[in-house]
Amino acid sequence: MTGFPILTLLLAVPLLAALGCLLAGAQTARRLALAATLIDFALGVVLWSRYDIGGAQWQFTENVALFAGFSYKLGIDGIALLLIMLSVFLMPICIGASWRSIDKRVGEYMAAFLLMETLMIGVFAAQDLFLFYIMFEAGLIPMYLIIGVWGGADRIYASYKFFLYTLLGSVLMLIAMMWMVNDAGTTDIPTLMAYDFPVGAQKWLWLAFFASFAVKMPMWPVHTWLPDAHVQAPTAGSVILAGVLLKMGGYGFIRFSLPMFPEASAQFAPLIFALSMIAVIATSLIALVQHDMKKLIAYSSVAHMAIVTIGLFAFNVQGLEGSMIVMLSHGLVSGALFLAVGVIYDRLHTREINRYGGLAISMPRYALFFMLFTMASVGLPGTSGFVGEVLALTGVYQVSSWVAAVCGMGVILGAAYMLYLYRRVVFGIQANPDAAAMTDLDLREWLMMVPLAGAVLWMGIYPESFLRPMRQDIAALDARLSRARPTGDATLTPGKPQSAVRAVTETGHEQPASAPMRAH
Amino acid sequence: MSWTHSLTLVAPEELLSVTGLVLLLASAWSRGQRDARAITWLSVLALAIAAIIVVPALCGGLRGDAANAFDGLYSGDSFAAFAKLLVYAAAGASLLIAPVFFEKARSMRPEYPVLVLFAVAGMGMMVSATNLLTLYVGLELNSLAAYVLAAFLRNDQRSAEAGLKYFVLGALASGILLFGMSLTYGFAGTTSFAGIAAALTGDISTGALFGLVFMLAGLAFKISAAPFHMWTPDVYEGAPTPVTMFFASAPKVAALALTMRIAIVPFGAQTVAWQQIVIVVSLMSIIIGALGAIGQSNLKRLLAYSSINNVGFLLIGLAAATPAGVGAMLVYLAIYVAMTVGGFVALLMLKDVDGNQVEQIDQIAGLSRERKVLSLCFAMVMLSLAGIPPLFGFWGKFVVFQAAVAADLLPLAIIGIAASVIGAFYYLKVVKVMYFDEPAGVALGKSDWVHQALLLLAALIISPLGYLLTKWLSDLSSLAAGALFAGT
Question: B276: Cβ–Cβ under 8 A, 6 or more apart, which residues?
Fold first, then answer.
């Protein structure tokens, strides 16, 4: 162990607060949960500020031999750092979103959320394969309870579907992990990331991991649990589901599938591209015809996650960086959109799009924030969505112009369904008197929206802050992948050497202009 | 091999038999529930002392000739010691929870602890047996006590039915086992495990193979593995709940340990012959245990199917046929005992206001709002049985699957783990009923402090804190597994 165990502290604070919440009354539990998540956010800020960009790949490492068969080993690189930041940033907002809307069994609810936070941070910080698995799987229990106890009318079906779907995906990964550990003789993730598994076995290992991450991500056609879970979950549950849990799939691809099985990843890239292309188009079209706001945003999540997967499997720096930014941006934006839905749901208790309309008149401040997040979801330049999508599509364009074209279409469709949603909810006439009577954002809601809006704009205007911590790690991953990189259809053919230069060398004359020309 | 040495090795069984006989005598003069309670506590004390006696053998890794007693009839090695500790713990828990239950039915009699002691002495012989005859004597000593225990509530029709059913089917299984033993004896010319191992090397003859198959079938009945599991739900449902807990834990540990020893020691050279049987039995148990549980509305029957399911997972470790596999089974057994005790104690604590036991699933609807701690513990037991991390039940499944993967049994591991998802469905159902449904307001009765303490202890072990035990468990289980493989 080196230095102060800040990662353990990050894990311990919400865990202890969760135990406290179980015993506390409603109001105390709310305050305790908010305090714990804010402390964790502060710790996250400290973590980011102390993170040495350009320093060692794995920082804040801790290793205690507590268990047999695996070890308590933590450490983060830039990728994990940003995802941990996303989690600790969203958590206080989630607690805020549940402040009033959850009024039964508050202590247990807050405990489940805090437990969730511990497990999410644990997933991103784990440096031991089995520690990762335990954290990864354990998240099912609190989420199952959150959906099942505090969810909507059809919550039981949704909670079962969520649990069993993701469990089935994950158990196969566990067997693959056991095989890997048996083969490589270590459970240490950094070592395994540099270990070359036999190419024949990689295929099966990759598929087993894919089964888990594709469900978690979720990718078409195993995405069907997501709309159900989202619609039935309470607002904060949706935020955390879309904001962080879906990122575990993408994180899994970056951390495991790509560096551990580069050859298999290259081999299966066409599969990923095909599924992602279908996902982008199909789920966008499905989103276009939804009547339920949460379902619409859930389907848009599937489409955005498809952009993440094509970026990841583009096997180049732009694609990988783009995917990471799309993940972070989607975490903020979809979280914010679910919050925005939650705000009006709390007032009218319906998610039916047609029950609203003309909110711009009665709720101007709300309309402004909703507008910003809609635009960010569409990918308007200046918002975080733009940066990620451009990078990811640039990355994939180098591999396949067709995939880039189809996914570009998906982005256009994304604009269509989001703007259509916005028009129906916010613009138009105030057809429903009860919707027209709704009050604008209060202070609590305002306090939740402003940080999200700030972060979305920050990431859109100056993405370098977010790209810098992970640049080195992405470069390392890119170098690792280089040996398996598939050749793309859009590779530029190198041009012939410039005739002017050749002419000069042939004649033997000095050509003053040649130096600046070479510089081009 | 001196007599004193042999007698020292058998000390725990001597202690338990003598205590059992003395207490039986004492019970002849006992009157009323108070005396029965006192005899129960004395029996628990005897079990605790027996546990202390076996600890040195376990920690010292006693094995080979040093552990042999009575010219190879009996082995007090660390493998037996590990199993005995689990048996004593499970039996002790079944004794502790009994008085409150039986006093409610006005049938707390001192025979209960005495029978448990005899059964435990028999189990001690089972796990230590290194000869077919010792094995059979131990098995029958255990079984005869168990048949009576199943029918202990003699005025309750269900209990009497359970006892009779258990007796008839158990006798049949013992017959099958004996038949297998006689065939094995016929082809090996000896009843000693070491002798059988020496005789059955190379290709196995058809007759000896039949012996092996019949012996495994008889044992599969005792561990309630599919397809010999039919009796389990009925007996578990009918028997008084403390007895059900006893059946689900102690004899299962003993019979599994016995199965391990038989597979590894006398038939150690015939791994290929029994491995496929074990694989099929294991997968069938997992799948039948999971599917059978789905339709159950009685919690005891559900736990019965759950135990069939768990036996399937345990056998995956045996199918690996490696020291790692056996060690993994022992770790799983230890966790299984904690989960079983937790599950049944929680079940015992479910009472209505008049103190009657609540056993139906729909009666515990919304329990989480009425009995917070109880339902939290019960939910933990259920999720732990389903093998969901971070609960400790995951670790048991983890180690057996790891052993299977290390032994290149990938198809078994993949099918087994995929089938565990089916099992998760019905475990989740219990959690769902307790947490998601509207309160039924039935199970509101108060619980006894002994039950509460045991439940909290079990919950503590299966909570994530249990992982702190992994080092210790893995050291001891590998010592024990090493002892089993020492002779081969």
Answer: none
